[in-house]
Write a structure and sequence with these properties.
Blueprint: H1 3-19, E1 32-34, E2 38-40, E3 43-45, E4 54-56, H2 64-71, H3 78-89, H4 100-104, H5 107-110, E5 120-122, E6 127-129, H6 131-143, H7 155-164, H8 180-192, H9 202-206, E7 213-214, E8 217-218, E9 229-231, E10 236-238, H10 240-250, H11 261-273, E11 284-285
Parallel strand pairs: 9-11
Antiparallel strand pairs: 1-2, 3-4, 5-6, 7-8, 9-10
C-alpha cells in the first residue's frame, strides 16, 4: 500500500470514528456531595468568550457506580495518593534539612485555595507555572533537593495532596498576570488544531461530540478540575500532562514533552475553560 493511500485511509478512519459515535447523552442531573457534607459545583455558566454555554464536570458523564466512588472519600482510591502526599509534605529532604511543612506549616491552612488558582504567572521564569513545577522550584531553591522527574517520585501524590486542600473551591485563572493572555491564546490554538493521522483536535471530542458514546464510555467536556485524577482503567492517579499526551497520542500524532510550552499553554486554556467548577482532586473517572 502506498503512502498516499495509507494517509487517506487514516483520515477516513478518524472521520469514521467520529461518525460512529453514539447518540448524544445529556449529563446526569445529580449533585456531587463528598461524604454527605461538601457540595461540589459540577455545573456553571461558561465565562464570556467560551464556545459552550454551560460547563459540566466530567463527573456528570460517568456511570452511577463511578460517581458513587468519588462521593465517598473512604471508597475513593485516589485518596491513598493524597495520604501519601501528606507524608511527603512532612518529610525532610535535601541539603537544607527542610520539608514542605518547614515553610508552609499546616497545608490545610497554607494551601487552601492554592490549587484552585494555578497555573499562574511565574515572573522568575517569565512563563506560566503549575503546581508540579512550583513543587520542583521549591525543592531546588528552598530545600536543596532534586527536582522530580515527570510523574516520578512524589510528584503526583504531592500535587494531589496540595490540590485536595482546595476541594470544593471554584477554579479561576488570572489572565491579567504577566503574559498569561498570550499563553491562553497559544493554548486555544493548540486546543482547536487538528493533528495526527486521524486529523482530530481536542475540540473534536470534548466540544463537538461531548456526551456521545465511544469506547464503552461517554465523552465529557474534557474539564481538568479533578487532576490528578484516579482512572479506574489504569488503576492509578493520572496527571494532567499525562492525559494531554495520551489524548494527542490517540490522534496518532507525536506528543510534546510534559511541561513543554505547548502543553503549558494548553493547561492555561483548558483550566480557564472550567472556570467556576469546583476543584475535585482526586476525581474518579473510568
Amino acid at each position: 500500500m502506498n503512502k498516499a493511500l495509507i494517509t487517506s485511509t487514516m483520515l477516513l478512519t478518524g472521520a469514521s470514528l467520529l461518525a460512529s459515535l453514539g447518540l448524544q447523552a445529556t449529563p446526569v442531573d445529580d449533585a456531587l456531595v463528598i461524604d454527605g457534607e461538601l457540595e461540589i459545583t459540577t455545573q456553571v455558566k461558561a465565562p464570556e468568550g467560551h464556545a459552550l454555554k454551560e460547563l459540566y464536570s466530567g463527573w456528570r458523564y460517568r456511570t452511577d457506580e463511578t460517581r458513587a466512588i468519588e462521593a465517598d472519600s473512604f471508597e475513593n482510591p485516589g485518596m491513598l495518593g493524597v495520604e501519601q502526599g501528606e507524608e511527603i509534605w512532612n518529610t525532610v529532604e535535601g541539603s537544607e534539612g527542610k520539608s514542605c511543612a518547614s515553610c508552609h506549616d499546616d497545608a490545610a491552612v497554607s494551601m487552601k485555595g492554592v490549587g484552585a488558582q494555578y497555573p499562574k504567572w511565574d515572573a522568575d521564569g517569565n512563563k506560566p507555572i503549575n503546581i508540579e513545577l512550583q513543587i520542583n522550584k521549591c525543592r531546588v531553591e528552598n530545600m536543596g533537593a532534586e527536582a522530580y522527574k515527570f510523574d516520578k517520585g512524589g510528584q503526583k501524590p504531592l500535587t494531589a495532596y496540595i490540590k485536595h486542600q482546595s476541594i470544593g473551591m471554584p477554579v479561576t485563572v488570572d489572565l491579567s498576570q504577566g503574559d498569561m493572555q498570550k499563553w491562553w491564546e497559544a493554548g486555544k490554538e493548540t486546543y482547536y488544531l487538528r493533528t495526527g493521522q486521524l486529523n482530530m483536535s481536542c475540540a473534536s471530542c470534548h466540544e463537538k461530540n461531548q456526551g456521545k458514546y465511544i469506547r464503552a464510555d461517554h465523552l465529557s467536556q474534557g474539564q481538568v478540575n479533578g487532576f490528578p485524577t484516579y482512572r479506574l482503567k489504569q488503576n492509578k492517579l493520572i496527571s494532567l500532562h499525562n492525559r494531554f499526551r495520551g489524548c494527542i497520542r490517540d490522534t496518532r500524532a507525536e506528543f510534546p514533552a510534559a511541561f513543554s510550552d505547548t502543553l503549558m499553554g494548553l493547561e492555561v486554556y483548558t483550566t480557564w475553560r472550567g472556570t467556576g467548577l469546583s476543584v475535585e482532586t482526586p476525581a474518579v473517572r473510568q
